[in-house]
Amino acid sequence: MTSKPTPQIVQGTAVALNGRAILLIGSPGVGKSELAMALIEQGAQFVADDLVHLCALGDKIMANMVQGRQHQMSLREIGLVDMEQAVSPVPLALVIELAPVTSLEQWTHFGPRLLDTYGPIDGLYCPQLTLDPRSQIILSKVRLALERWGH
Predict the structure, then answer these.
(1) How far apart are CA 48 and CA 45, in angstroms?
(2) pLDDT in tens, 94-136
């Protein structure tokens, strides 16, 4: 008898680039929705905002909108914005934790900042990277990280 996948609902925002989902996580107000909107303006597709449904399907973690949620994104100072939903579910390729750099030591580190794994979701893991949301080139960093570590 095979066990049924156990879905998880996480606080975050997800977008899809070239059929691969990126899950943005971090503390409230750090800029997850703003980064997602900037990525969408550059061609990414909306998957989910605020709550993301994660579930294993075969050997992949899938990201999807929580059932019953609206296709909307909440942007500070603007409010709710209607979005077109990407084809869902989308295979999760990368998790990016948004966390401001707080020390000089973090600024002088040239390797990946906290390259780690996210999970497990039914025994599966996904690459996770921490980025400073204040970076002027964060959009480029997200795309490069997806190319380098997204699976």
Answers:
(1) 10
(2) 999 998 877 545 555 555 555 677 887 888 889 998 898 988 9
Which residues touch 137 (CB under 8 Å, ≥6 apart)?
Answer: none
Please, what is the Cα angle at 60 between 57 and 17, to 5 degrees? 115
Q: Which two tokens stand for residue 139?
A: 């959009």
Choose among 12, 18, 70: nearest CA to 45.
18
Q: Which CATH number fits domain 8-149: 1.10.10.10, 3.40.50.300, 3.40.50.10610, 3.30.2000.10?
A: 3.40.50.300
List phi, psi (to 5°) of 39.
Answer: -65, -40
pTM: 0.84
What proportions of the chain, in percent to the nearest 5, are helix, strand and coil? 15, 45, 40
CA dihedral 125, 126, 127, 132 (to 10 degrees): -120
CA gap 42, 123 in Å, rounded: 33
